[in-house]
Amino acid sequence: MDGWQSGLMRTPGKRVCRKATRVRIPAHPPFRETFILPRTLRSKTFAGIRAVSALLFLVFAARTLAVGDPSSSSILESAKTDYLAGHFDSALTKLAQHDKAKGADGDSLDLRGAIALEQGKLELAERDFREANKVQPELFAPRLHLADLFLREKKYDLARELYEKLGSETNVVLSNEQVRYGLLLIALATHDDSAAQSALAQLTFPTESPAYYYAQAATAFAKGNESAGKKWIATARQIFDRPALAWFASQLYNLGWLKEKPSPPSA
Q: What is the full DSSP assignment across 205-247?
Protein backbone atom coordinates (compact mmCIF):
# COMPACT_ATOMS: atom_id res chain seq x y z
CA MET A 1 0.00 0.00 0.00
CA ASP A 2 1.40 3.31 -1.00
CA GLY A 3 1.20 6.42 1.11
CA TRP A 4 1.58 7.31 4.75
CA GLN A 5 -1.06 6.83 7.45
CA SER A 6 -1.13 8.10 11.01
CA GLY A 7 -3.28 5.25 12.36
CA LEU A 8 -3.40 1.48 11.55
CA MET A 9 -2.44 -0.03 8.23
CA ARG A 10 -4.76 -2.87 7.26
CA THR A 11 -3.28 -5.88 5.45
CA PRO A 12 -5.58 -6.98 2.60
CA GLY A 13 -7.30 -10.37 3.29
CA LYS A 14 -6.20 -10.59 6.91
CA ARG A 15 -7.71 -9.30 10.12
CA VAL A 16 -4.38 -8.97 11.85
CA CYS A 17 -3.29 -5.35 12.15
CA ARG A 18 -0.05 -3.85 13.00
CA LYS A 19 0.77 -0.31 13.83
CA ALA A 20 1.99 1.78 10.97
CA THR A 21 5.25 3.48 11.27
CA ARG A 22 4.71 7.05 12.51
CA VAL A 23 6.58 9.78 10.67
CA ARG A 24 6.99 13.23 12.18
CA ILE A 25 6.63 15.89 9.50
CA PRO A 26 8.84 18.82 10.33
CA ALA A 27 7.18 22.27 10.71
CA HIS A 28 9.70 23.80 8.34
CA PRO A 29 11.68 22.42 5.46
CA PRO A 30 14.78 20.69 6.69
CA PHE A 31 16.90 22.97 4.57
CA ARG A 32 16.74 26.72 5.25
CA GLU A 33 18.75 29.45 3.67
CA THR A 34 18.69 32.99 4.97
CA PHE A 35 18.23 35.50 2.17
CA ILE A 36 20.36 38.58 2.69
CA LEU A 37 20.40 41.49 0.29
CA PRO A 38 23.81 42.62 -0.83
CA ARG A 39 24.94 45.83 0.88
CA THR A 40 24.76 47.87 -2.32
CA LEU A 41 21.24 46.68 -3.07
CA ARG A 42 20.16 47.35 0.51
CA SER A 43 21.40 50.93 0.29
CA LYS A 44 19.53 51.50 -2.94
CA THR A 45 16.34 49.97 -1.50
CA PHE A 46 16.37 52.14 1.64
CA ALA A 47 17.16 55.21 -0.45
CA GLY A 48 14.14 54.42 -2.64
CA ILE A 49 11.90 54.09 0.41
CA ARG A 50 13.10 57.45 1.70
CA ALA A 51 12.50 59.04 -1.70
CA VAL A 52 8.94 57.69 -1.87
CA SER A 53 8.23 58.95 1.66
CA ALA A 54 9.51 62.39 0.78
CA LEU A 55 7.40 62.44 -2.38
CA LEU A 56 4.27 61.49 -0.46
CA PHE A 57 4.97 64.24 2.05
CA LEU A 58 5.32 66.83 -0.73
CA VAL A 59 2.08 65.69 -2.37
CA PHE A 60 0.24 65.96 0.95
CA ALA A 61 1.69 69.43 1.59
CA ALA A 62 0.76 70.62 -1.90
CA ARG A 63 -2.82 69.40 -1.52
CA THR A 64 -3.06 71.12 1.85
CA LEU A 65 -1.89 74.41 0.37
CA ALA A 66 -4.25 74.07 -2.58
CA VAL A 67 -7.28 73.43 -0.41
CA GLY A 68 -6.34 76.12 2.07
CA ASP A 69 -7.40 76.48 5.67
CA PRO A 70 -11.07 75.52 5.85
CA SER A 71 -11.45 77.22 9.22
CA SER A 72 -10.64 80.63 7.69
CA SER A 73 -13.35 80.24 5.05
CA SER A 74 -15.91 79.12 7.59
CA ILE A 75 -15.08 82.06 9.87
CA LEU A 76 -15.56 84.50 6.98
CA GLU A 77 -18.90 82.94 6.05
CA SER A 78 -19.99 83.11 9.68
CA ALA A 79 -19.00 86.80 9.78
CA LYS A 80 -21.14 87.44 6.68
CA THR A 81 -24.09 85.71 8.34
CA ASP A 82 -23.72 87.92 11.42
CA TYR A 83 -23.48 91.02 9.22
CA LEU A 84 -26.69 90.17 7.36
CA ALA A 85 -28.41 89.64 10.71
CA GLY A 86 -27.23 93.06 11.89
CA HIS A 87 -24.78 91.64 14.46
CA PHE A 88 -21.93 93.91 13.47
CA ASP A 89 -19.75 93.55 16.58
CA SER A 90 -19.79 89.77 16.30
CA ALA A 91 -19.00 89.99 12.59
CA LEU A 92 -16.01 92.25 13.27
CA THR A 93 -14.72 89.86 15.93
CA LYS A 94 -14.83 86.98 13.46
CA LEU A 95 -13.19 89.09 10.78
CA ALA A 96 -10.32 89.74 13.18
CA GLN A 97 -9.97 85.96 13.66
CA HIS A 98 -10.03 85.41 9.90
CA ASP A 99 -7.40 88.05 9.22
CA LYS A 100 -5.16 86.70 11.98
CA ALA A 101 -5.34 83.17 10.58
CA LYS A 102 -5.13 83.95 6.88
CA GLY A 103 -4.44 87.64 6.45
CA ALA A 104 -6.85 90.28 5.15
CA ASP A 105 -8.09 89.65 1.61
CA GLY A 106 -10.46 91.44 -0.73
CA ASP A 107 -13.56 89.69 0.61
CA SER A 108 -12.82 90.36 4.27
CA LEU A 109 -11.91 94.01 3.61
CA ASP A 110 -15.07 94.47 1.54
CA LEU A 111 -17.14 93.06 4.39
CA ARG A 112 -15.44 95.44 6.82
CA GLY A 113 -16.37 98.31 4.53
CA ALA A 114 -19.99 97.12 4.29
CA ILE A 115 -20.21 97.01 8.10
CA ALA A 116 -18.72 100.50 8.39
CA LEU A 117 -21.20 101.74 5.79
CA GLU A 118 -24.12 100.31 7.77
CA GLN A 119 -22.75 101.98 10.90
CA GLY A 120 -22.47 105.35 9.17
CA LYS A 121 -18.67 105.36 9.30
CA LEU A 122 -18.27 106.56 5.74
CA GLU A 123 -14.56 107.44 5.81
CA LEU A 124 -13.70 104.04 7.24
CA ALA A 125 -15.92 102.35 4.68
CA GLU A 126 -14.20 104.16 1.81
CA ARG A 127 -10.78 103.17 3.13
CA ASP A 128 -11.79 99.51 3.40
CA PHE A 129 -13.34 99.41 -0.09
CA ARG A 130 -10.26 101.00 -1.62
CA GLU A 131 -7.97 98.62 0.23
CA ALA A 132 -10.04 95.64 -0.91
CA ASN A 133 -9.71 96.81 -4.51
CA LYS A 134 -5.98 97.24 -4.04
CA VAL A 135 -5.54 93.74 -2.65
CA GLN A 136 -7.80 92.05 -5.22
CA PRO A 137 -8.54 94.45 -8.10
CA GLU A 138 -10.44 91.75 -10.01
CA LEU A 139 -13.31 91.74 -7.47
CA PHE A 140 -16.49 93.49 -8.56
CA ALA A 141 -18.19 93.99 -5.18
CA PRO A 142 -15.73 96.40 -3.50
CA ARG A 143 -15.84 98.78 -6.46
CA LEU A 144 -19.64 98.59 -6.66
CA HIS A 145 -19.86 99.36 -2.96
CA LEU A 146 -17.47 102.28 -3.38
CA ALA A 147 -19.73 103.70 -6.12
CA ASP A 148 -22.72 103.18 -3.79
CA LEU A 149 -20.85 105.13 -1.12
CA PHE A 150 -20.21 108.02 -3.53
CA LEU A 151 -23.91 108.02 -4.42
CA ARG A 152 -24.86 108.14 -0.76
CA GLU A 153 -22.46 111.05 -0.21
CA LYS A 154 -23.96 112.81 -3.24
CA LYS A 155 -20.61 112.70 -5.04
CA TYR A 156 -22.47 112.06 -8.23
CA ASP A 157 -19.62 112.59 -10.68
CA LEU A 158 -17.41 110.06 -8.89
CA ALA A 159 -20.28 107.60 -8.59
CA ARG A 160 -21.22 107.94 -12.27
CA GLU A 161 -17.63 107.47 -13.41
CA LEU A 162 -17.21 104.31 -11.36
CA TYR A 163 -20.59 102.83 -12.34
CA GLU A 164 -19.84 103.41 -16.01
CA LYS A 165 -16.43 101.80 -15.69
CA LEU A 166 -17.93 98.77 -13.97
CA GLY A 167 -20.56 98.48 -16.67
CA SER A 168 -17.90 98.36 -19.37
CA GLU A 169 -15.95 95.63 -17.57
CA THR A 170 -18.64 93.07 -16.74
CA ASN A 171 -21.00 90.94 -18.79
CA VAL A 172 -22.74 89.44 -15.75
CA VAL A 173 -26.45 90.20 -16.07
CA LEU A 174 -27.08 90.93 -12.39
CA SER A 175 -24.02 93.18 -12.16
CA ASN A 176 -25.07 95.10 -15.27
CA GLU A 177 -28.55 95.61 -13.83
CA GLN A 178 -27.07 96.99 -10.62
CA VAL A 179 -24.85 99.40 -12.57
CA ARG A 180 -27.75 100.64 -14.74
CA TYR A 181 -29.91 101.11 -11.66
CA GLY A 182 -27.16 103.15 -10.02
CA LEU A 183 -26.85 105.34 -13.11
CA LEU A 184 -30.62 105.84 -13.13
CA LEU A 185 -30.57 106.99 -9.51
CA ILE A 186 -27.82 109.50 -10.27
CA ALA A 187 -29.82 110.88 -13.19
CA LEU A 188 -32.97 111.15 -11.06
CA ALA A 189 -31.10 112.75 -8.15
CA THR A 190 -29.51 115.35 -10.44
CA HIS A 191 -32.80 115.97 -12.32
CA ASP A 192 -31.24 114.93 -15.62
CA ASP A 193 -34.41 113.83 -17.42
CA SER A 194 -32.69 112.79 -20.63
CA ALA A 195 -30.17 110.57 -18.82
CA ALA A 196 -32.95 109.19 -16.61
CA GLN A 197 -35.05 108.18 -19.62
CA SER A 198 -32.02 106.55 -21.25
CA ALA A 199 -31.14 104.62 -18.08
CA LEU A 200 -34.73 103.54 -17.52
CA ALA A 201 -34.98 102.28 -21.10
CA GLN A 202 -32.08 99.90 -20.41
CA LEU A 203 -33.95 98.28 -17.52
CA THR A 204 -36.74 96.69 -19.49
CA PHE A 205 -39.07 93.98 -18.24
CA PRO A 206 -38.21 91.34 -17.23
CA THR A 207 -34.96 91.64 -15.31
CA GLU A 208 -33.25 88.83 -13.42
CA SER A 209 -33.05 91.02 -10.33
CA PRO A 210 -35.60 93.42 -8.79
CA ALA A 211 -33.96 96.21 -10.85
CA TYR A 212 -36.97 96.77 -13.13
CA TYR A 213 -39.44 97.18 -10.24
CA TYR A 214 -37.16 99.39 -8.17
CA ALA A 215 -36.30 101.50 -11.22
CA GLN A 216 -40.00 102.15 -11.74
CA ALA A 217 -40.39 102.89 -8.04
CA ALA A 218 -37.44 105.31 -8.05
CA THR A 219 -38.87 107.12 -11.06
CA ALA A 220 -42.23 107.46 -9.31
CA PHE A 221 -40.62 108.73 -6.10
CA ALA A 222 -38.53 111.28 -8.04
CA LYS A 223 -41.73 112.62 -9.59
CA GLY A 224 -43.39 112.89 -6.19
CA ASN A 225 -45.73 109.94 -6.76
CA GLU A 226 -45.09 108.09 -3.51
CA SER A 227 -48.16 105.88 -3.82
CA ALA A 228 -47.06 104.49 -7.18
CA GLY A 229 -43.54 103.98 -5.88
CA LYS A 230 -44.79 101.92 -2.95
CA LYS A 231 -46.94 99.79 -5.27
CA TRP A 232 -43.93 98.91 -7.41
CA ILE A 233 -41.99 97.90 -4.30
CA ALA A 234 -44.91 95.82 -3.02
CA THR A 235 -44.98 93.97 -6.34
CA ALA A 236 -41.25 93.28 -6.13
CA ARG A 237 -41.70 91.86 -2.64
CA GLN A 238 -44.22 89.35 -3.98
CA ILE A 239 -41.71 88.07 -6.55
CA PHE A 240 -38.26 88.25 -4.91
CA ASP A 241 -37.06 87.25 -1.47
CA ARG A 242 -35.83 89.85 1.01
CA PRO A 243 -32.06 89.33 0.50
CA ALA A 244 -32.47 90.01 -3.24
CA LEU A 245 -34.28 93.28 -2.49
CA ALA A 246 -31.91 94.65 0.13
CA TRP A 247 -29.28 96.25 -2.13
CA PHE A 248 -31.87 98.00 -4.33
CA ALA A 249 -33.90 99.17 -1.33
CA SER A 250 -30.84 100.53 0.46
CA GLN A 251 -30.16 102.96 -2.40
CA LEU A 252 -33.67 104.39 -2.15
CA TYR A 253 -33.32 104.67 1.61
CA ASN A 254 -30.02 106.55 1.26
CA LEU A 255 -31.72 109.01 -1.12
CA GLY A 256 -34.53 109.54 1.38
CA TRP A 257 -37.24 107.92 -0.73
CA LEU A 258 -37.79 105.05 1.71
CA LYS A 259 -38.44 105.78 5.37
CA GLU A 260 -37.84 102.30 6.76
CA LYS A 261 -34.22 101.17 6.83
CA PRO A 262 -33.90 97.89 4.90
CA SER A 263 -31.85 94.88 5.94
CA PRO A 264 -28.11 95.05 5.24
CA PRO A 265 -27.43 94.25 1.58
CA SER A 266 -25.32 91.24 0.71
CA ALA A 267 -21.61 91.99 0.86
A: SP-SSTHHHHHHHHHHHHTT-HHHHHHHHHHHHHHS-HHHHHH
